[in-house]
Amino acid sequence: MSGNTFGTIFRITTWGESHGCAVGVVVDGCPAGLTLSAEDVQKELDRRRPGQSIASTQRKEEDRAEIQSGLFEGKTTGTPISMIVWNKDADSSAYDAIRNAPRPGHADYTYVAKYGIRDHRGGGRASARETVGRVAAGAVAKKFLANEGIEILGYVTELGGIKAEISSMDLSELRAKAESNPIRCPDQDAAERMLQLLDQVRREGDSLGGVVDILAKGVPPGLGEPVFDKLDADLAKALMSLGAVKAVEIGAGLESARLRGNQMNDSLIFREGKVDFETNNAGGILGGISTGAPIFCRIAVKPTPSISRKQRTVDLSANKDSEIEIKGRHDPTIPPRIVPVAEAMVAIVLADHLLRSRSARL
Amino acid sequence: MSGNTFGTIFRITTWGESHGCAVGVVVDGCPAGLTLSAEDVQKELDRRRPGQSIASTQRKEEDRAEIQSGLFEGKTTGTPISMIVWNKDADSSAYDAIRNAPRPGHADYTYVAKYGIRDHRGGGRASARETVGRVAAGAVAKKFLANEGIEILGYVTELGGIKAEISSMDLSELRAKAESNPIRCPDQDAAERMLQLLDQVRREGDSLGGVVDILAKGVPPGLGEPVFDKLDADLAKALMSLGAVKAVEIGAGLESARLRGNQMNDSLIFREGKVDFETNNAGGILGGISTGAPIFCRIAVKPTPSISRKQRTVDLSANKDSEIEIKGRHDPTIPPRIVPVAEAMVAIVLADHLLRSRSARL
Amino acid sequence: MSGNTFGTIFRITTWGESHGCAVGVVVDGCPAGLTLSAEDVQKELDRRRPGQSIASTQRKEEDRAEIQSGLFEGKTTGTPISMIVWNKDADSSAYDAIRNAPRPGHADYTYVAKYGIRDHRGGGRASARETVGRVAAGAVAKKFLANEGIEILGYVTELGGIKAEISSMDLSELRAKAESNPIRCPDQDAAERMLQLLDQVRREGDSLGGVVDILAKGVPPGLGEPVFDKLDADLAKALMSLGAVKAVEIGAGLESARLRGNQMNDSLIFREGKVDFETNNAGGILGGISTGAPIFCRIAVKPTPSISRKQRTVDLSANKDSEIEIKGRHDPTIPPRIVPVAEAMVAIVLADHLLRSRSARL
Amino acid sequence: MSGNTFGTIFRITTWGESHGCAVGVVVDGCPAGLTLSAEDVQKELDRRRPGQSIASTQRKEEDRAEIQSGLFEGKTTGTPISMIVWNKDADSSAYDAIRNAPRPGHADYTYVAKYGIRDHRGGGRASARETVGRVAAGAVAKKFLANEGIEILGYVTELGGIKAEISSMDLSELRAKAESNPIRCPDQDAAERMLQLLDQVRREGDSLGGVVDILAKGVPPGLGEPVFDKLDADLAKALMSLGAVKAVEIGAGLESARLRGNQMNDSLIFREGKVDFETNNAGGILGGISTGAPIFCRIAVKPTPSISRKQRTVDLSANKDSEIEIKGRHDPTIPPRIVPVAEAMVAIVLADHLLRSRSARL
Q: Measured between alpha carbons, how far is C57 from C332 in angstroms, rounded to an integer?
């Protein structure tokens, strides 16, 4: 059972390598009747695209989404939605140097160890370019979720140790602030300090890690399938499947370990005739099932492994120690660009569980 | 697609409620020819069993593992291994009070929201008793892994804010130390302070959270299926599917967000003719595939939600605010007892991926 | 991915060997709120039980269904339903002779070829006793389907070459007739001739094959997931997974190959304001999706492989040709007893697709 | 869980509609290291392509296979293999007439019943054009199987009631004969009579059904996962998932119902030091596991539903009875062209089970 498919009812399969002709995704299980257009997808791909700021690489990718199937007269038909984004002709010769010299922090060595062969050009299948398919699929999921009143937003809350102050959890306000700067940090002041640090680190040939929060509002109670396909378990898998993510937290997350029971527990109360919670340390999930409160996830993103400093590695062709210097332009930090990808993964999980929840009762 | 099955080739299905007649598990996909006995399973169940110390409840459960199928003359046959553990007759009347009053921090409300009906007795399906099946299945996985030279160990590294000092990563040494105290903390001094704090908190009718590390040694390079069923992604799901877990970290985990690229990247070197790594910030996984270095996971465990203090909740039968006092004995902290369960989940993931990796090449 | 689980949303996992302590099944994904009792299950197990007539073995099995989980106050809770049927103490010594001598027509040789080990006692996992779990799970599926207005009936239409005349497709009438004789054939006259032939063949130490039809009424249009999980494809798999089945037909089945297009095509018409079909050569399925017309399946069942005549086989311990005489009582024909099992498999497929169809539209 | 994915380890996902821009398939789980080229795939697509004879439509499709991913320097890398075949610009206006008038024998009505919307142009997703993806995936499976010494061949054995005489089961001989005439029937004399009948029936505006056999040689013993994912069960599903198939037989198939036990059972013997069978009524499968003898499947194919005669149907826009005349060129019979598709499905099942069997033992 290979690993390029994700989800059960709402299910995506991605394919493609960095320097192949294209990358793509097949979305199966999207309900029929949803209004969908290439623009819906393009909007999200544009958010993922490397920009012009120092927070991302200077490469100009113009990823155009093409929807190849599953649509008829502007609506989904219930059949698979294939989407493709063509790769620009890339010069792969720059990668000759890494053919036998695995880059530290990358999947180069492990792909060889597993498959005995690997497309080393541009990182091959392990390239972040693979996430184009996730973002395209996530756009479909978001459209479906919006139709059900569910909205998702990700933003950077920490970069290189600089922490943002989040004063409001209002989604519109957060979105407006986060999308107004290249860091995607809703705290404008922190964003500026992050940019400065980033500029300095980049000039040092190094890179920064950071923290991204993802918030989902409007999720009804009852989503999640105990005991293994819990909503938080599936979110953890979805987010940890992103290359640079090294930790996933739900609700109070790691902080939970330091709270006492009476601090951690969220009291239940009636608000406007409906069950609600006084606090949300649970992050909107109890026993693996959504509570109706906002879903809150947090991911720790490691610093970009491609740095221009000289690094130690091995020469697999000669079986000896070696050194490597990685050329080319690389994002000096990943969090700003992982935001739309993380949102996509959360959207896919929620869309899937929304459909799965339809079978909970008679 | 219901959520009570986990794994693809090595696959487990658990069933049972806290106050039903029994809990159990069916393990499918264990290779034929493995020497296995009820004692192998019992050993792990005994580690999970509530003990006599203040770190766990005073209840005496004598969980006896019975293997009902899949064995012939002491060896697995490749057919499903059904295992059952009978529940002791329980007095469910103590739970009448919570029938309509969802306990804060528990899955009571969400089960009702999802299914419209719930077995409230002893927490029903959402009880930690469900993990008996996981531990039994994990014992089978461990036996298979041991046969392949893979060993797994979990231990507590933080409780109620008290952090342990881990001086060695030698598995035998860690095991001997961790299993020598009721906290399962390899730092004896820290363990004593944890016990003292626990005693105090328990008397205050409150509970503590903590942190557990899980280490797997002997894992060959090449395990994990990119791009979604990455080894770290599946570990994250497996561990987050445990009720009290609110965060999962791999390798440097959350700390990765604060490191620079040149600090985070693990240099590759040749050691004794084999590719190795100078450091292991990756936690033994790159691009979702094992590197051959030790696998390192960390989980944050929330404080026990069942506390004896009065808490606010709602009365679902009367649609009004209410209060609740939870009676009975409950573990004042979960980490010591979650250790064998977390080990089991890691073992199941590794067993599954070991089998999946057999199809990577011609 | 092991093969002991069937279904996607409504999903069953069976376990157990013929001479182990028990056989059982875990049903996952049954919607919450369904009224269910052990009697519902017992009723179907009793139909499967070997009876007193010459059409089945003289053994007295008193299979009692026990429901171990997933029920609360008489209703399903949405959690896994574990069911167990204990095996009577069996004398396995009679099977010593076949330990190294694979019985022709049985799975003896192939289990050894696959697993290198096998529980030979009573056929082990490959025994028809495994179908106890299927029938128990099918009883749950039938209860769910009845709630949705769907009814299923199987009956024998051919035995040893003797064909029944089916004069009516009325389900109640068919059921009354079929269940009135030990052959389960709705044509009483044919049933008598079948019984006579069976008696003769049994005395000759031989066995008979036959044909069973399964009819499902009340199935709404829209069930089935193209292009691979078509309703007919899943029915074919479900029925072919029964040990003795060698052919599965849908609607006109094999006869379709001899019809011309204008004979085969079922014209659409309006009946009582609803779309209906003039004929039903399609067997209620077009393009893998139910049409609303009755679902019609037919299976060819091979003669019981356990016959008392001397047969040629090999001695696996000595790597030489050998002979075998199978002792003990065996059904001289399988069709009458496969009826409730085939119904169960059809019920499980329909229950699963009914739930799956809930996600077809927004 | 949508139905456009098939297989567990070797897994394919098809997408695309008849009049969309393209049809395609993603093959996941093909082992790394397999030599593969677009020519391997083209060869099979050419066999599926409508030809010049009266046995198939006169349309000229020039389906060119493009491999978009998963290959590096001529070898598979273990990552998903995406393949696409562009559709020629089609004039969809001819299909306006069927927008609201479901064609008898087609999936038109059921797609509307299920999804509430359908792409009616050229049959949309339910068009036989979808099988392009299956054939392309099957070509990859065949390449993998050839590497393991397994060969597959399909051929027509009956058409419009005319039966072929098959004098030899030698694969090379069968292939040479079958591929020498447009019916793909290894009996040249029968093939000529079939062609004559076909010509006559076509001129009458009608169509013919037929029977296709598929044979697989070189399959080792041990493939198939009891108890549900039996090899014959998965073959039955794979073949029944083809639109026009109404029956699947394994080995003696329907004839089994008329044999006695002593006729049906295949005696085991030693041949050249290996276990073999005197006969092969089992069709190479016992208890759902391959025996090592040739795998033998047979399918009944219904007559082409698109016939030029006037047929009764309904007008869904006006809710009244109506009539339909189907224009355009259509194959007057399906069996000759289904041969490579059926081979592909058998190849995919065998490739999947070959990989699955790698986990059967320690």
A: 8
Cβ atoms D48, D337 nearer than 8 A: yes
Task: Please give the share of chain A, as a percent, with pLDDT higher than 90.
Answer: 90
Interface of C with D in 276-305 (CB under 8 A): 278, 281-283, 285-292, 300-305
A77–D124 C-beta distance less than 8 A? yes
Whether B11 sits inside 8 A of C21 (CB atoms) is no
**B14 near C CB under 8 A:** yes
Kindly report, residue by residue over B200-215, the tens digit of the pLDDT.
Answer: 999 999 999 999 999 9
Chain centroid offset of residue C277 CA:
28
Q: Which residues of chain C neighbour D115 with C-beta distances below 8 Å?
A: 360-361
Q: Using one digit for the tens of pLDDT, what is the confidence trace for B98-122?
A: 899 999 999 999 999 999 999 999 9
Please check whether residue C200 touches D, CB under 8 A.
no
Alpha helices in D72-222 (DSSP H): 108-115, 131-147, 171-178, 188-203
The domains of chain D are located at 5-359
Q: Kindly give the interhelix angle for A38-48 and A335-356, rounded to the nearest 10 degrees.
A: 140
Task: Write out pLDDT tens, residues D88-131.
Answer: 877 888 888 889 999 999 999 999 999 999 999 999 999 999 99
**Nearest Cα residue in chain C from B73:** C119
User: Helices (DSSP H) in chain B: which residue ranges?
Assistant: 38-48, 108-115, 131-147, 171-178, 188-203, 231-240, 261-264, 335-356
| Per-residue pLDDT, C57 | 60
- Among A133-147, B54-68, D185-199, the minimum mean pLDDT is found in B54-68
Tens of pLDDT, residues D269-323: 999 999 999 999 999 999 999 999 999 999 999 999 999 999 999 999 999 999 9
The chains in contact with chain C, meaning 3 or more Cβ pairs closer than 8 Å, are: A, B, D
Chain A residues touching residue D133 (CB < 8 angstroms): none
For residues A250 and A238, give the distance between their C-alpha atoms in angstroms, rounded to a whole number.
13
Count of residues in chain A:
362
Q: Which band of pLDDT confidence, cut at 50, 70 and 90, is reported for residue B329? A: confident
Q: How far apart are CA D347 and CA D137, in angstroms?
A: 9
Average of per-residue pLDDT values in chain C: 95
All partners of chain B with 3 or more CB pairs under 8 angstroms: A, C, D
Chain A neighbours, 3+ Cβ pairs < 8 A: B, C, D
Can you tell me the distance from the alpha carbon of A187 to that of B173, in angstroms, rounded to the nearest whole number? 47
pTM of the model: 0.98
Helix axes D38-48, D131-147, angle to 10 degrees: 130
Q: How far is D144 from chain A (nearest CA, A)?
A: 16
Q: Which residue of C has its CA nearest to D276?
A: C314
**Cβ–Cβ < 8 Å for A2, D28:** yes
For residues D64 and D42, the answer to whether their CB atoms sit within 8 Å is: yes
Which residue intervals of chain C are DSSP H helices? 38-48, 108-115, 131-147, 171-178, 188-203, 231-240, 261-264, 335-356
B269: Cβ–Cβ under 8 A, 6 or more apart, which residues? A312, A314, A321, B275, B276, B277, B278
D110 to C287: CB separation less than 8 angstroms, yes or no: yes
Q: What residues in B contact D27, CB-CB < 8 Å?
A: none
In our burial notation (b when 16+ CB lie closer than 10 A, e otherwise), range A53-90 reads ebbbbeeeeebebbbbbbbbeebbbbbbbbbbbbbeee
CB atoms within 10 A of CB C39: 9
Q: Which residues of B touch A246 (CB under 8 A)?
A: 249-254, 256-257, 283
Convert the pLDDT of each residue in A184-235 to its tens digit.
999 999 999 999 999 999 999 999 999 999 999 999 999 999 999 999 999 9
CATH topology of domain A5-359: Chorismate synthase, AroC fold (3.60.150)
Kindly determine whether residue D15 and residue A124, on different chains, have CB atoms separated by under 8 Å: no
